[in-house]
Amino acid sequence: MKNIVDPWFTVQELDDMTYAISEYGHWEKVHSFLLIGKIKAALIDTGLGIDSIKRITNQLTDLPIIVLTTHVHADHIGGHGEFDKIYVHADDADWLINGIKGLSLNRIRKDMARDITKALPESFDPSTYIPYLGTPDGILADGDSIDLGNRSLSIYHTPGHSPGHISILDCERGYLFTGDLLYSDTPIYAFYPSTNPVDLVNSLERIAKIKKVSKIFGSHNQLGLVSNIKEEVLKGTQYLKDNDLIRHGTGIHTFKGFSVHF
Q1: Quick one: pLDDT at residue 256?
Q2: Distance (Å, rounded) from C-alpha 123 to C-alpha 240?
Q3: Which stretches of 128-243 are assigned E, i.e. beta strand?
Q4: Residue 145 burial by Cβ neighbours in a 10 Å radius (0-12, 13-18, 19+)
Q5: Model confidence at 227, in pLDDT bands (50, 70, 90)?
Q6: Contact predicate 33/45, CB 8 Å
Q7: Residue 220: DSSP 8-state
Q8: Phi and psi at residue 75, in whole multiples of 5°?
Q9: What is the pLDDT of residue 1?
């Protein structure tokens, strides 16, 4: 384990070629993930952009890094501008290029400045924060396979939280990275106008049926989900269906290990 002590980021080793890079000093408690292969590495999301995530990845690998965007919300693309190769699903590409219509810059800045529990870097000023905008270098699609060299990743299109949300399976290790489709402790958001509750439930059911998953990692809060979460997801989605709850305005629905907010 490389012993990285950093004032903003917390680095946790999942194995000797896989790292979680977490921002526990912000209320979002967001995780990005670095997956290192033989010929290149993949960084799943780039965090809030409050501090330089590249400072961390430079200490973990010398290989070229591609960025795989689970979805285009500000807390997952903050460091995109530090990297040369950015990939996103086609259905979120317009948000990356032009921003999310109806989401004000003032709202984003308030969220960035909210409930901070660590000292902010001097370089960060929430009043001047600008979320990343840029043209992706590549477009991802459901079923794509990404070869890192002796390590392959499979892309699953899992919309609902955003139109182009993806989940990523590390085929060799069985790690499933679920972005904001599935995490614990706080509700999964599917109440914004840009969300789709029906798609979200279908996506949850889909990932719960993926074979050979050894561990599941969401992008917020607790690092790593409980081992039986797939069974609980199937129970929860069936309950939502049986009770006609899969639509905006039905509120927060809590299950064992996760909850959703419609």
Answers
A1: 96
A2: 45
A3: 138-140, 145-147, 152-157, 166-170, 175-179, 188-189, 215-218
A4: exposed
A5: confident
A6: yes
A7: B
A8: -75, 0
A9: 56
